[in-house]
Amino acid sequence: MISIKANVKGAIELAGERDYPNETCGFVLGHIDKDDHRLGDSILEVTNSREEAEAYHRFVITPEDFLRAERKAASDGKDIVGIYHSHPDHPAEPSQYDLDHGLPFYSYIIVSVTGGKADKTTSWRLENDRSRFIEEELTQD
Description:
Shape: globular
CATH topology: Cytidine Deaminase, domain 2
Strand order of the largest sheet: 7-6-5-4-2-3-1-8
Number of domains: 1
CATH class: Alpha Beta
Structural class: alpha/beta
Helix content: 10-25%
Order of helices and strands: EHEEHEHEEEE
Radius of gyration: 14 Å
């Protein structure tokens, strides 16, 4: 389960709308308790580094961006609890590309952006064997 602050959900949706028709992406920062409950209380936006011709349906976060997010989280006394991205004109469900490139442990928050307007927002966890995503409960805190 992941809880995110209302302003975090709003910021993710706004980023998806702003970057439409391309995918947006970034990190969700916050805390993870001993029961693996996650609370996302801020985001760190990154530039989708995918080639422009592919950015409408793919996103890439560079190793440098990942390192920057780890350093930002550590300096703020937080963890990286998730990675968010948008699906322009597609459902808020992981794609095969997401499955092929995802990492276990993180929550993957996906916002569907239809016609430039944020629609549905969901969260998913990748099985440790990387065989499939399982939808996780997403609540607003």
